[in-house]
Amino acid sequence: MTPAHPHDTSLFINRELSWLAFNERVLEEAVDSKTPLLERVKFAAIAASNLDEFFMVRVAGLQQAVEDGETSPDLSGLTPSQQLDAVRVRSQAFVAALYRLVTAELLPALASHGIRLLAYSDLNDSQRKALGAFFAEAVLPVLTPLAIDVSRPFPLLSSLSLNVAVLLGAAPAESDCRLAIVQVPAGLARLVRIAVADGAAFVPLEEIIRAHLPQLFPGQTILQSTMMRLARDAEMEFDDEGGRTQLELVERELKRRRRSDVVRLELEASSSPELVELIADQVAVTPADTFAVQGPIDLRVLMGLVELPGFQELRDSPLPPVDVLTGEQTDIFAILDDQDLLLHHPYECYDPVVALLAQAADDPDVLAIKQTLYRTSGGSALIASLQRAAERNKQVTVIVELTARFDEERNIRWARALEEAGAHVIYGVRGYKVHAKMCLIVKRTPQGLRRYVHLGTGNYNEKTARQYTDFGLLTTSQAIAEDASAFFSTLTGYSDPPRFKKLTMAPTGLRQRLLKLIDRERRRAAAGQEGEITAKVNSLIDDEIIEALYAASRAGVRIRLNVRGICALRPGVPGVSDHIEVVSVIDRFLEHSRIYYFFNGGDEDVYLASADWMTRNLDKRAELMFPIEQPEHKVKVLDALRAMFRDTEKSRWLQADGTYCRRTAHADEPRFRVQEALHEQARRTAAMARERTGVTFKPKSPRRLEGA
Amino acid sequence: MTADTLAPEAVAVLDMGASAVRLVIAEVAAGRSIRVVEEASRGVLLGRDTFSGGVIRPKTADATFAALEGFRHIIDTYKVQRICAVATSAVREARNSELFLDRVRGRTGLAFDIINEAEESRLVYLAARDALRGHAALRGAWTLLVEVGGGSTSLMLLRRGRPNRSGVYALGAVRLRQVLDLRRHTHELQVALLKRSIANVVEEIAVSMPLERVTQVVAIGGDVRLAAAQILEQEDDDGVHEIPGEKFLAFCDEVERLDDDGLVNRFRLPVADAETLLPALLVYRALLAQTAARQIVVSDASLRAGMLLDLLQPGGRLGADDFEGQVLASAEAVGHRFRFDRAHGHHVAMLATRLFDDLRDEHGLSKRDRLLLQTASILHDVGIYVSLRAHHKHSQYLLAASQIFGLSDDETAVVSNIARYHRGRSPQQSHLPYVALDRGDRIRVTKLAAILRLANALDAEHLQKVRDLRLARGEASWVLEVDSAGDITMEQMAAKARTDLFTEVFGRQLVIRLAGGIP
């Protein structure tokens, strides 16, 4: 995309390369021998899975752009074909490094701890016999070998599915070899455990199939075989015409996706050039997008090993979420009537949010529940509560985002269930993804209507609430409640966008507001005052925001950015961004919260938000930013935000050249690992609060959580 | 109201204006303040239809139904029972308004009342008075309250905070655009056309209101609030904001230089808001220029806030003592327009209310009816402005077409009929304005006209000689005892001649006595 005004392309880092740098940082965690082994394996699997997604979305987009003849450069001045070239080179190198790590380091290390991934050739006779029986009983019945010839075209292999490609000898009276495909059934576990004397040993399902190929092609000569996997273009394209509902559109799009263009082909490095060419030709993939790998295809298989029970010594020591509700407090409404709660997950537990929904579903005085759902976990207690509330004739309005990438099929299922329970389910908003995270409960009390609002930086997902760092605010603030009601009325189409009192919404005002807040610091600094901006986002790739930050830096504003992933801003460029620092933290929890801080001449503004500083978030998504106003909540958020910049263990600093470096710690500097420190702080705070409520008489109306 | 009067009640007020339908959900509790729970609005361009073609077109009607169905959903969230919904000029002036509102009711269950300009002014005034409570702007000698809406501009002149005069003028932002067909012209020509037509109306306003004495201007309305937020660089536009005159003018100049697209980009406005901003600001500016005010006070008061205040007061508009004074002040202003004999009007009103009070057990009418009698008494002779001959008939149509602040259309019709029967024949089935009233109002008119006839006769010479009177039921007749200052032979004769309707209504002959003597 080309910005409307001329800019210096050298001041921007290419988005795709910045993303690849992020994934390299993830890989670094897998490389780092200080990381416990199973955590290293997990990071390797995550890096591999991230790359799959990157190809299906970003690389696919670049390929499409090149195919369409687009030549307009991005912010960094690279044309689509230049970007594609750079991405191919760098991702080939990445994949090579990843496989080197997995096969040469991680798998041998796992084996030394008794966790073995075995090839068929490693097995003894009895093991082979057992697997032979397993194959005949459980696998063979669900296999469908497909031979390919003139009358039978190459099958539509679904994206990321694993397949065995088999080269068969020429049939009698023919001269050419033939290709056949055996799809590895997705319904069966990828890892088959076999009995061994000690530890845990697995054989991948595809190895078992491959060992039994002669049974599938009786009487034919199997010349060679390779595992192969395709990645297809997953970019969603919506056709807004024809009056289809959003739900139908997504269902149709999902069907289309199974057939969409192949963006990457992976096969084994041992495959003969002949076989590679044969397959590449069939799926229409260029050599540049063909990855010949040395090791198991689809490294997500490693997740099966990570999830093995036991082996605690190979993992991070657990950091269980701290329970912030002390004493016998169980009535979440009563608690919130006394105080607002600011929760920092996963250091603090997510239970209050789950409890709020559960209690709302059962409380006869609750009139309505309104909720956005972007990505949520299967079997979610939150959805069960919403369903129960709807069945009890409460007005339940759920704005479901169906275009949340890769989660669509799962979303459609529970959305239908909610609808059947009587909830008013809104399948997204035309033109905008609803990314804001908010829940509003309307309750009747003897004093009148009372509203309980939850606002968060993360999705309503109990599972990720244990893995992602996010903030959530539970409040009964009248002004926020009024805004919350107006927000839902706007998204449900019942009202035009209102003027909010406390909240700021994208796409209607967030960009302007952020630019104003950044500019306010700039003006203060230009007038000789102190100026400071500290922010935490997952990605920063908006030219307007970046230019505003450069302008602020030039005026002398101190800017510290904690950007986990993509960052198109180039820090430390003399005369441009001397006062900007960018740090990325990759550790056991996925950094996910969005925090914006502005010094404002000492009258500090602290905001939490669902939005990253990306063009798409500011313009194409319904997002929310909300202020943190209670002094002790401000302190809590700011402590967490500032701690990100003190990390000595898991942080990398972005350099002016676009590379990331670990900070060289001073010799006497104490070791500081921010995620562990924040957990420790949460634990201590809760313990102190518990202690106090234990020794003192509990006031009827404790105003605040103490010691926060 | 339920037995549990302490619990706040959730209410909904809706207003259907020229460019949007709006909803406020609030909690009201008697004796307590109003708490807004949720506000919503949907842009619906009713005014564009009405002010250009005179009717609401099917497509606009459908958009309105859709918007109101959404509002219905919001209302149901809070299980609201009490709903008050009004429509203003865009619906009021549409030829198909009744059919349209009937369909609204059918589709959404929402029953909208069309309110007249005076009622609109009254509600806005209620809101402004509440929003500006304690503010210097309402304590000034002369304050001008201005609301430029989509369909019209509502003005109220306050004398030391109390309504003195009011008027509603066809200067709405949407109406101006439609009537002048602005879209056909260049931006420069648009500005020139707007300025010219606004100047014409403002000139007319200056004739009936002493604008030059005004030292405080209070502005109400979405466009001016938007201007205030921009000028003061504030995120929200709640509460009361004071803008120095020169800053306001500078902002108006800036807006004037931008066309609609420019406004959308400059202030990030929805197109509908951008379209009304310039016409509205030009109206405010033209009015401000006529006054001696040095600043403009922008308030977030609104029609809806007024409706909520009206709901908060048990019994609605009754019982608001200061409100009676406002109706009478407005009547006075109408009287001035028709060069009435002020002393006579007020004297007759005094006599009539004395009679009304003494007859309380007899007529069974309310305090509100007393106010209608008072108003009709003050204004009964305005028809003389047209012609002395048959002036009671002229009074009827002049008053029927006048805006008397605080009176509904039905009440204005009652007042005009009372005035009609202050002389001449008694009500007949052939009198169209009379038979147009419903039965209750016809009886009301007859009773009050009987009183007015008598009171008017008692000031036959317009010399205010009857100082006071007492009416009591005698053995077989009504005995009227009058205190006089001077010879009242003429008045006695006139009264005797005008007791026909009185006798008919109150059942007995009337005997008039001079206090302290015999007739």
Plain-language structure description:
Chain A has 708 residues and is an alpha/beta fold. Helices cover 37% and strands 21% of the residues of chain A. In chain A, a hairpin with a 5-residue loop joins strand 5 and strand 6 (200-204). Chain A is globular and about 85 Å long. The model of chain A is unreliable at 237-245 and 695-708 (pLDDT under 50). Chain B is of the alpha/beta class and 519 residues long. Chain B contains 22 helices and 14 strands. Chain B has helices at residues 46-53, 58-77, 89-92, 97-108, 117-131, 173-179, 187-208, 222-231, 245-257, 260-267, 271-290, 303-312, 321-337, 342-358, 360-363, 367-379, 391-400, 409-420, 432-435, 439-457, 489-497, 500-506, and strands spanning 9-16, 20-28, 35-43, 82-87, 112-114, 142-148, 153-159, 162-169, 216-220, 240-244, 295-299, 466-473, 477-484, 509-514. In chain B, the strands form three sheets. In chain B, strands 8-7-6-9-11-10 form a six-stranded mixed beta sheet, with helices on both faces. In chain B, strands 3-2-1-4-5 form a five-stranded mixed beta sheet, sandwiched between helices. In chain B, a hairpin with a 2-residue loop joins strand 7 and strand 8. In chain B, helix 1 (46-53) crosses helix 6 (173-179), helix 6 packs across helix 11 (271-290) and helix 9 (245-257) crosses helix 11. Chain B is globular and about 80 Å long. Chains A and B meet through helix 14 of A and strand 2, strand 3 and helix 2 of B.
Which short descriptors sum up this protein?
heterodimer, A: 708 residues, alpha/beta, polyphosphate kinase like, Endonuclease, Chain A, 3 domains, 10-stranded mixed sheet, 21% strand, B: alpha/beta, Nucleotidyltransferase, domain 5, 6-stranded mixed sheet, 5-stranded mixed sheet, 22 helices, 50% helix
